[in-house]
Amino acid sequence: MSAEPDGPEDRLRRFATIWSRAVFPVTSTSATRPEFEEQLLPLARRLSEALRARIYDADEAKAVGAALVTVHCTDPEALTRTLDCVDAYLVLYCGEDGIQEDLRARAARLQHAMAAGFAHALRERTLAEQEAIAQAALQAQGVVAQALHATEARFRAVFEGAAIGIGMADLDGNILQVNGALLRMFGISEQTMRARNVMEWTHAEDAPQTWKLYEELVRGDREHYHTEKAFHRPDGTVLWTNLTVSLLRDADGNPQYQLALMEDTTERRLLNLRLRYEATHDALTGLPNRTFFFERLEKALGAGKGQRFGLCYLDLDGFKTINDSLGHAAGDRLLVEVADRLQSCATAPGEMVARLGGDEFVALTTGPDTEREVDELAARIMNAMVAPISVDGRELTVRGSIGIVEGPAGERSPAEVLRSADITMYRAKSAGGNRFELADPEADARAITRHGLTTALPTALDRGEFFIEYQPLVHLGDGSVRGAEALVRWLHPQHGVLGPDRFIPLAEHTGLIVPLGRWVLEQSVRQAREWRERYDGAGPLRINVNLSPCQLTHPGLVQDTVDILERMGVAPDALCLEVTESALIGADDDLLKPLRRLAEMGVDIALDDFGTGYSNLANLRRLPVSILKLDRSFTQSMQQFPADPVDLKIVEGIVSLAHSLNLDVTVEGVETGAQAEQLRILGCDTAQGWYYARPGPPDRLHELALVDATG
């Protein structure tokens, strides 16, 4: 057994040897096999360098493909054998320094580029030969009698030695002469070929204008034409050619013969079809991919009047969990099985299934009655997912969420349709999954607006688009202003003033809530200082700022608060941080620790929306809160007299419990005097609501506080 080559040069030489042995038998060259190997060696070196280059260079591989034609590898079989060698041995002998998976992907791209370079060079050579033949044919007609013999000999040499097929026929289509290359292309004898008539060489895939061009040429109305044409071979296979037909005239300019030049493009066509399939189909499932799907969708949307389309956008529920727990190999097997089931659901004319990527699939149906058909298609898909899928001995239940878009052709672009389907699919997923939803233009508009707001959020803070309004907190006993709650607003360039319910959830989702909350805290504390300085302590005594759950878990909460208070020169007891009850349900000591530290410093902590989170009332003792903010749902019935006695008892009990725990009670949403009076009687401490003032700019709070201070 011989040893494997050691150094890179030895490995490169071994690759060149294998390459030359594979290609030499189908190469038209006078060189010996070792001489031919020396010609391939620099090409092998260029491929090796292109394989391991930091940046992929398609031009280098195209140049290698073109060089194959230069060294007389013009037979299509030479290209096929070359690509097979590159696929099997290039990474093995020339890719020891890279990650095998990446190198194989690079090698596949090099093969595609080599094929393109080979095809281009062969076409250029063919055109050159065609030009030489045409010139020789013309010279054979026009030269004087003394040079006729030499010209005919030159034409005969070109005719017989050309690598492309050449045939000559009269104007009635009777074949007069053919060269050896043409006979080999068809696989028949010269006698059989000359017994045929040009008009017999029809094929079902002939372009509509092919025979019209032929008729114009034999009439003398056209000098030549070029087309791609298929021919039947005697063995039942199809020969594809690039066909050029030229008209030959006699000395007086009258049409006399027709000359056909044929380049065999069968192998190249098959290669292009293979490359086209790989470019338009998913490698894992074999389904059409995103590229192919968009082509079909664009065609469906561009159909004529009266045509409609229906699209189902499917996303598997919980697929990430399967990947994380069982591994990606198991996830891939699951996707293959899902793809097979989906394929069986879309077998009718006008229906197709594609994989967009990951665990996302689409099914498309077209025709005049897709309103009914798309619902049936979605139902078939859901039914196909019912049966468990066996993967590695485990029975996995697969669920999916589907968004359906249906409508007439010609009204929307592919991108708009897919966006609507994607939005609708996520609506189905957020509703619990394992269901399908129909697209709703209003829901789409809300989702698009929400996405636009999410995208604009990061720069909105930098552009100063946020501002704060303040709502007073009034003492129910004497009517004095005891503080104000800071409420952030967004002055959006297109949508105007947006309340916190429109953007705070988006800020929490993107993580922007932390810098936004820090900004609100800083602005609010600065405003509290200005109130006190301007009115000599007559302004609101405390500023209330809301904290989101994301801010509670941020490690810089305590330090940021301390820094802001110290920088503004404001005492901690002038600040109250409001935390929703739901954020503290089941909170552990780690979550409560920063709140306890702030409370120990003197910052008040208010439990906001109390009564909506199903918390244990006894749990209040372990929370570092000093204020309960009673949710407005408990006091709505008190707007009219008499109030609901059950609500009165509930509020009275909460107030009594809070006071026994040394907690103040603040009530939200006070809108009438009767409400305010009833809450005062029940013992509530402070209140806020439209009865006192709506949220507004700081100056309105200045005026209210000043009036209160002066009586």
Structure overview:
- It is a single chain.
- The protein is α/β, with parallel strands linked by helices and 711 residues long.
- The protein is built from 25 helices and 21 strands.
- Strands 13-14-16-17-18-19-20-21 form an eight-stranded mixed barrel, surrounded by four helices. A five-stranded antiparallel β-sheet has the order 2-1-5-4-3, with helices on both faces.
- α1 crosses α2.
- Residues 1-5 and 143-148 have low confidence and may be disordered.
Main sheet characteristics: 8 strands, mixed, barrel
Tally of contiguous helical segments: 25
Strand order of the largest sheet: 13-14-16-17-18-19-20-21
Radius of gyration: 41 Å
Low-confidence stretches: 1-5, 143-148
Distance between the termini: 109 Å
Find the count of extended strands (DSSP E, 2+ residues): 21
Please, what is the average pLDDT? 85
Question: What class would the helix/strand composition place it in?
Answer: alpha/beta
Percent of sequence in beta strands: 15-25%
Helix content: 40-55%
Q: State the shape.
A: elongated
